[in-house]
């Protein structure tokens, strides 16, 4: 557990209570494997669907099943979609950062802001490289930025809760994966129902978040350990 805490220093002397790592040591191995596999899925799906403008066979079947939802569910999907829009996303990130600062956990605030931003940035860079479109040549669709954002933010929160509660490897990984799955499923369902993305776009966005957040958490801890 000693590696999980980093002293805050001032002038070469320890100042205040130790600051907890945002990437719990017990989870590093498992999350590293998860990030690697997720990155591979993003790459494979991107290659398979590069340049497409129509849903694949699996996409079409899922899309048809989701499209049977009634008008009430469309309102729920619109509300969920708002959480990935600039205003909704900004409110969520500000709330997460403020919560981290209230408990005096600056490196957690750094990850709460940086993790989702990096995940969305990754999807923005990948879209023109893959070149998959939906509803016209101007609408690049793979991977889903909305799904990547909400998954990344919830994944960060789950990591921080795991660290604060001191959960072990099995419980911590279970919490992190369950939270990420719930967030990705909710936003992904909304994007498919609204016709904004193909189901495989959603899977790509979800995996993008799983690959990016652990990679962002590692340097956040390293930077905090080295700061004066």
From TrEMBL:
Hydrolase found in the keyword field: yes
SUPFAM superfamilies the UniProt entry points to: Acid phosphatase/Vanadium-dependent haloperoxidase
Domain Phosphatidic acid phosphatase type 2/haloperoxidase: 108-217
Keywords: Cell membrane, Hydrolase, Membrane, Transmembrane, Transmembrane helix
MF (Gene Ontology): hydrolase activity
Superkingdom of source: Bacteria
Regions crossing the membrane: 26-48, 82-103, 108-126, 146-163, 170-190, 202-220
Name this polypeptide is given: PAP2 family protein
């Amino acid at each position: 557990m000693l590696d999980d805490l980093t002293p805050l220093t001032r002038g070469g002397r320890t100042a205040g209570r130790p600051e907890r790592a945002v990437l719990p040591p017990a989870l590093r191995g498992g999350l590293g494997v998860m990030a690697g596999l997720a990155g591979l899925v993003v790459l494979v799906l991107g290659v398979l669907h590069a340049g497409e403008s129509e849903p694949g066979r699996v996409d079409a079947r899922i899309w048809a099943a989701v499209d049977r939802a009634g008008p009430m569910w469309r309102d729920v999907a619109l509300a969920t979609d708002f959480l990935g829009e600039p205003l909704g996303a900004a409110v969520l990130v500000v709330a997460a950062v403020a919560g981290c600062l209230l408990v005096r956990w600056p490196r957690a605030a750094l990850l709460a802001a940086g993790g989702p931003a990096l995940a969305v940035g990754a999807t923005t860079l990948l879209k023109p490289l893959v070149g998959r479109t939906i509803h016209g040549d101007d609408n690049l669709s793979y991977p889903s930025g909305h799904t990547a954002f909400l998954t990344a933010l919830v994944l960060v929160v789950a990591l921080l809760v795991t660290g604060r509660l001191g959960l072990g490897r099995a419980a911590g990984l279970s919490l992190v994966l369950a939270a990420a799955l719930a967030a990705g499923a909710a936003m992904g369902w909304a994007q498919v129902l609204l016709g904004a993305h193909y189901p495989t776009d959603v899977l790509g966005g979800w995996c993008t978040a799983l690959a990016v957040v652990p990679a962002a958490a590692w340097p956040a801890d390293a930077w905090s350990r080295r700061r004066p």
